[in-house]
Amino acid sequence: MFRKDAVKLGIAPIGWTNDDLPDLGKENTFEQCISEMALAGFTGTEVGNKYPRDTKILKKALELRNMEIASAWFSAFLTTKPFEETEKAFIRHRDFLHEMGAKVIVVSEQGHSVQGQMDTPVFDAKPHFTDEEWKRLAEGLDKLGELAREKRMKVVYHHHMGTGVQTTAEIGKLMDMTDENLVFLLYDTGHLYLSGEDPVEILKRYLPRIKHVHLKDVRDHVAAKVKEEKMSFLNGVREGVFTVPGDGSIDFTGIFEILANSDYKGWLLVEAEQDPAKANPFEYALRARRYIREKAGI
């Protein structure tokens, strides 16, 4: 289905050890994480909190397993803090990823975000930006895009539950307000579906600007519980709202077809934050790899 060498397959470490909930997977080491990724048939990963920041050590560990770094999350605070604070942190992050060979930088605006608040309902308390905050966000992202371009890299914006850029309308506004040559989109199936958006519609509409893909599934019965019980994003994760492709409620067939028949080149990265005590990360990595092989032919 996919053209040879058009895409690479990776998986995020968040199924092994959770950055936002450090007690989830605290027993799992960095070496176990990347070894099981490679054993499951993946060749790339994003950066987790247990990954060494010394690039020589990290490169050696990955090369031993024929793995590479696809990208890493960056928290921007363009709506709530002076641009210079985000700029300084972004340059450090950019240079680290550039040295590791990554081509894209995952950016998410965390000003007013409730995704990290344990007791705040992720649906009811979703933040909304003012006109001035939208302006600061768009202008700031364009500047970050210019900084990324200095290293021949791209900023890919991560729409995310519990933030000011989550819905179809908000994604559209961000795309309209930013430079199409500087700011690109990270397409995350799980966040779109959980928010109530149409993942296929978003994919078709913004395909030329999509430069990074997160494949994440959602368990409908848990999502309903998150809404009904007014749970936070983090407690939803604990309950198991997310899972790997093929284990939840999203039909990925059309998504794979659209991507395969497009000019998309880059990473397809499985990302499913779960409690590893409930969902063995190696088992679920194997399950995801098998599903992608069956449905996407890769």
Automatic annotation (TrEMBL):
InterPro entries (UniProt xref): IolE, IolE/MocC, IolE/XylAMocC-like, Xyl_isomerase-like_sf, Xyl_isomerase-like_TIM-brl
UniProt-listed Enzyme Commission number(s): 4.2.1.44
Pathway: Polyol metabolism; myo-inositol degradation into acetyl-CoA; acetyl-CoA from myo-inositol: step 2/7
Catalysis performed (reactions): scyllo-inosose = 3D-3,5/4-trihydroxycyclohexane-1,2-dione + H2O
Cleavable signal peptide: none
Residue span(s) of domain Xylose isomerase-like TIM barrel: 38-293
Cofactor(s) demanded: Co(2+); Mn(2+); glutathione
Keyword presence, Lyase: yes
Top-level enzyme category: lyase
Pfam families membership: AP_endonuc_2
MF term (GO), any: myo-inosose-2 dehydratase activity
Gene Ontology terms: biological process: inositol catabolic process
Keyword tags: Cobalt, Lyase, Manganese
Family (UniProt): Belongs to the IolE/MocC family.
Stated name of the protein: Inosose dehydratase
UniProt source species: Thermoactinomyces mirandus
Classification of source organism: Bacteria, Bacillati, Bacillota, Bacilli, Bacillales
